[in-house]
């Protein structure tokens, strides 16, 4: 019914979702997904896990391989953390509880989106991106520390002594993992490309669906009804009610919410930063649906991840309040007094890079999908020849 009543709006929303997916999301995530698959297949992730076990286990109560997922999640953005956690769980490198701990703090927004798209693209201020990034990633680390107490470790793990750094042991594990994987290099590379493209196609479907859904609930006035209740809650904690509708939109789709927050009539920047930090940490229901779909391939439960998103939103918002003056206001005064030309140049560089990336994104997307189709076609021919 909604699609029939608002066909033009639904079409524009779906086009917006497609542009976002094939121009930014697909080309930015594909290299990380393929690289991660190759590193897992070659045993490099097991090697990293042995090296970082003495750090990750006491700090986050997860194996050392969690350091790889954490780093890749921050660099590439959501839902990479969920994808890699699921992959390691399938490889039996994580227990169920460890995987639920790990996925709770390894899904983060990538720096390009925070600084280029949000700070420069929407707010035209790259200094704001530094503040948002620090609040986002530091809040995620605090979530990881809190989630280390989630669940119970298996009895046998409590008897183990904390492992020490051993490069020799790490190389032995790398060699052992590579020997156990009987696939030739060509098969590993083909699997990496096909699996990555299939996952990104699923992600694209969710992005388009939630883009249309968010637009339709706005057209029907449902968003305004819920925003009224949200405005009351914002007033209770001292935030302007004008941010209610942008925040509600951001709870579904981050990019739209961030854009609406930047266009709001609020004169003070701090409330905008607080709300923006929360929706970046919450991930939005669009990303959460992607994560739920990825986790469904294993026995990893979605509830701990959802709880962690709320916790991350609270931490990031509090950090935004505490760090706004030292990391933004003080820096703003100092930089405008000393190097305004350099700051303007930096902003242009971020904008130019982001626009260039979006321009070549569709080419990368179509080329990658074409490669995946060729690989699947060749494999289907080989199967037919076998029979």
Fold and architecture overview:
This protein has 387 residues and is an all-alpha fold. The chain has one domain (2-386). Helix content is 82%, strand content 0%. It has helices at 2-5, 7-42, 44-60, 65-76, 80-90, 96-105, 111-122, 126-147, 155-158, 167-180, 185-219, 222-236, 244-252, 254-262, 269-282, 284-295, 303-338, 340-386. Helix 3 packs across helix 4 (65-76). The radius of gyration is 22 Å and the shape is globular. The chain starts with a helix and ends with a helix. Residues 24-121, 200-296 form the Nucleoside transporter/FeoB GTPase Gate domain. Keywords: Membrane, Transmembrane, Transmembrane helix. Pfam families: Gate. It comes from Aquibacillus salsiterrae. InterPro entries: Gate_dom, Spore_IM_YlbJ.
Topology of helices and strands:
Blueprint: H1 2-5, H2 7-42, H3 44-60, H4 65-76, H5 80-90, H6 96-105, H7 111-122, H8 126-147, H9 155-158, H10 167-180, H11 185-219, H12 222-236, H13 244-252, H14 254-262, H15 269-282, H16 284-295, H17 303-338, H18 340-386
Helix pairs in contact: 2-5, 2-11, 2-18, 3-4, 3-10, 4-5, 5-6, 6-8, 6-17, 7-8, 7-18, 8-15, 8-17, 11-16, 11-18, 12-13, 13-14, 14-15, 15-17
């Amino acid at each position: 019914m909604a699609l029939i009543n608002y066909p033009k709006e639904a079409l524009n929303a779906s086009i917006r979702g497609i542009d976002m997916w094939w121009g930014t999301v697909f080309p930015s995530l594909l290299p990380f997904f393929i690289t991660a698959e190759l590193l897992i297949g070659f045993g490099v992730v097991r090697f990293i896990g042995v090296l970082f076990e003495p750090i990750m286990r006491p700090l986050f109560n997860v194996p050392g391989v969690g350091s790889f997922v954490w780093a890749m999640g921050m660099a590439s953005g959501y839902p990479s953390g969920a994808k890699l956690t699921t992959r390691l769980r399938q490889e039996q490198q994580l227990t169920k509880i460890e995987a639920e701990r790990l996925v709770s703090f390894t899904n983060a927004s990538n720096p390009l989106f925070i600084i280029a798209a949000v700070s420069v693209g929407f707010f035209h201020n790259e200094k704001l991106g530094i503040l948002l990034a620090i609040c986002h990633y530091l809040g995620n680390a605090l979530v990881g520390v809190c989630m280390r107490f989630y669940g119970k470790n298996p009895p046998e793990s409590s008897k183990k002594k904390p492992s020490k750094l051993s490069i020799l042991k790490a190389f032995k594990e790398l060699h052992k993992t590579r020997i156990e994987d009987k696939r030739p290099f060509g098969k590993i590379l083909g699997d990496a490309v096909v699996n990555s493209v299939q996952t990104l196609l699923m992600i694209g479907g969710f992005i388009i669906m939630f883009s249309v859904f968010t637009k339709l609930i706005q057209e029907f006035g449902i968003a305004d009804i819920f925003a009224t209740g949200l405005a009351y809650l914002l007033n209770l904690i001292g935030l302007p009610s004008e941010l209610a509708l942008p925040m509600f939109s951001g709870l579904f789709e981050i990019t739209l919410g961030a854009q609406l927050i930047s266009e709001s009539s609020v004169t003070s920047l701090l409330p905008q930063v607080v709300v923006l930090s929360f929706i970046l940490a919450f991930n939005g229901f669009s990303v959460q649906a992607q994560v739920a779909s990825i986790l469904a391939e294993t026995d990893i439960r979605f509830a701990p991840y959802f709880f962690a998103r709320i916790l991350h939103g609270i931490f990031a918002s509090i950090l935004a309040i505490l760090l706004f003056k030292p990391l933004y206001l003080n820096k703003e005064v100092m930089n405008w007094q000393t190097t305004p030309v350099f700051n303007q140049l930096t902003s242009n560089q971020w904008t130019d890079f982001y626009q260039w990336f979006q321009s070549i994104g569709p080419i990368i997307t179509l080329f990658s999908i074409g490669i995946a189709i060729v690989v699947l076609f060749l494999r289907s021919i080989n199967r037919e020849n076998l029979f």
